[in-house]
Structure formats: C-alpha cells, structure tokens
What we know:
heterodimer; A: little secondary structure; two-stranded antiparallel ribbon; 0% helix; elongated; B: alpha+beta; Rossmann fold; D-amino Acid Aminotransferase, Chain A, domain 1; 3 domains; five-stranded antiparallel β-sheet; four-stranded parallel β-sheet; globular
Amino acid sequence: xxxxxxxxxxxxxxxxxxxxxxxxxxxxxxxxxxxxxxxxxxxxxxxxxxxxxxxxxxxxxxxxxxxxxxxxxxxxxxxxxxxxxxxxx
Amino acid sequence: xxxxxxxxxxxxxxxxxxxxxxxxxxxxxxxxxxxxxxxxxxxxxxxxxxxxxxxxxxxxxxxxxxxxxxxxxxxxxxxxxxxxxxxxxxxxxxxxxxxxxxxxxxxxxxxxxxxxxxxxxxxxxxxxxxxxxxxxxxxxxxxxxxxxxxxxxxxxxxxxxxxxxxxxxxxxxxxxxxxxxxxxxxxxxxxxxxxxxxxxxxxxxxxxxxxxxxxxxxxxxxxxxxxxxxxxxxxxxxxxxxxxxxxxxxxxxxxxxxxxxxxxxxxxxxxxxxxxxxxxxxxxxxxxxxxxxxxxxxxxxxxxxxxxxxxxxxxxx
Lengths: 89, 317
C-alpha cells in the first residue's frame, strides 16, 4: 500500500541528537530562604552548599544525560532557554 | 510606599538570586514566589471592584498586596501542579484553574512594570514572528523558509547552499532510555531532503558565513553584547567548554533596532543571538525573551545584574 508522505516520520525528528556530556547539577535540592528570598542549596545528603558553589543557569538544560521525568516538571524544566509554563495552551 | 518588587521563579534559580541580592542591598521591598506552591502553601484572595484589582497573594512567610507592586521579574516559575493522587482529568482541571486564576492575577497587577510580561514572552517566542519583527526593525536576517513541501525545501537548499535546519519549538524529547534529546543547528545536506519533509513544519535557513557569534542581552534601553569565540561546532550552545567571551560595543543601528524590537513586542528584556559575518555585519538569528544570562563570567554578569535591579527598582511609577 502506498503511504502518503505526510504519514512518514517527519524529517526533522531524524535530527534529534543527545546532549553533550555535562557536569551534573552540583545540588540535589533547593528551597527559598524566607529572610533573604534567595535559594538555599543542598547536596544529596541534605547538607547545605556554600554560597557560590551551586552553579549558574546555563543556556540549555545540562542534566539531560540522566533520565528525567516525562511530565516536564523536573528540575530540567527550569534550566532551558525557553519558558515552559504555557506550552500546553 | 514605593511598592514591592515581585520575583516569580522556582526556588533553584541562581540568576534570580543574583538580582535579589542586589535589591536586598538596596533595601528594596521584595516578594519572591513560585506558582507551583499554589494552592497548598500559597494563598490567593484577589478582589475586583470599582477600583480595579486589589487583595492579597500570600506565599509562606510574607504577603503581597496586589495593588502595590512596582515591578515583576518573571523568571522561570515551575509548572503548575496538582495534588498527588488525583486522576488526570481532575488534575488538569486544577492546573487550568491555577493558570487562569493565580496566573491571571499575577499578569494584571496594576501599574507594575513587567520584566517581562509572561504573555508577551509567549508572543515573542514564535520564530516566524521574531524573524519578521527583526527585519521590520531594520536588522539583517538570513533568508528563511518554513515549509512542509519537499520540493520547496530542495529548491531553497540549492539556491541558498549551505543551509541549516532549526526546529520551530524546542520540544522536550527523550530516547527510550530516558536521556534527553535536542535538535542542534547543523548543516543540511540537500540530498537528505526527502518526502518526509511533508510530515511537519520545518524551518530552513541560509547558513551565515560567520566569524563569531554575538549574544546581546538587552535590559530596558541598555544593551550588553558579548562576542563568543571558540565554538567547535556551528551551534555554540552544543558545547560550552571551549567558548571564550569578550564584551563588545554594539553598533548604533543595532542598538536602535534592538530597542525598536523590544518596543514592538512590548518587552523590557530580551536575549538576542546574532552571527557576526565576514564583513562585520550583525545578522539576527533569534531573540529569546526570557533567555539565560547568568552563566557568563562574573565581569559580564555583574553589569547585567545591576541593570536588571535598576529597572525593577525603578518600576513604572
């Protein structure tokens, strides 16, 4: 049976490629300091990280070497160069 | 009272931390919240009457008077969430009510300067709108084709070779093992352009013969341009490890065009990517209305941080 070109896997999807290797995020979780209104950052064992040791936002998400949740709400969602909240409109 | 600066972002946002630190030093009253705290640990009581919008938005530890906000720094809020255990349809309903309820209130705070307004960000994320807007504002853009017609794509490739392909939206995408995938800007071999181009909208663009890339961060009337050298591949975002950054002066016509662009899209902030071609011309590639800037070295980040704080402190009043 002949397939319509529109039914082929779209050309652009063939351009999907992995992210290059990158450093994992230096913190496991963050919470807001109610006094300073800045983030407090903690490692995986819950120890607070020194100021300046938690990295800075990069232009694209960096931790995509590791599996992320499929709901778009993982930490990666805040790292990308594009705002995500209104995507489903 | 001069009003509060509202910062809307996730808890893990080092860029917002930098700006908040400066505003704290200047003793500017400030409230920071993440909409995903709603409704479990953030309360909303917005009142609408003859005097417009009032009432309160109440995150943990503080309270925001809705009618006394001088400016809003809309950074990277988390996605809205629903309580765990809800079925999908109920959860979607809760999230929709949050987006149009809390999100709607935060989008119409009276008299506030938005940096940027989230709905203006959304409008300005469209690649066709960006290219059309940039061209209308006097910036040079590469010849571009958006199509689902393979013949048109092939003809464009022949005429403008070499060309690149760019996605129209950076969708989240994962391989079966769960690792992320992305589409980087890479050259297109015209022989690759087969019938499957018909299966989606595709953006093809003439590849600029470039000396370097320019990243220009515009904050209100101020422009901070950085020349990026050392990218081992066409798309410098693919590998940061070898990049070097040099602040450069922005040519006056580009400054004027960037201001016109921000005005056209009603933005207070935008991160522009240019290719610097072999003749020294700045070719507009895209403008991210909510682009990242805090990964630059400190000597570049510091003036941007202070410009953001200046604008937020000043507000509209």
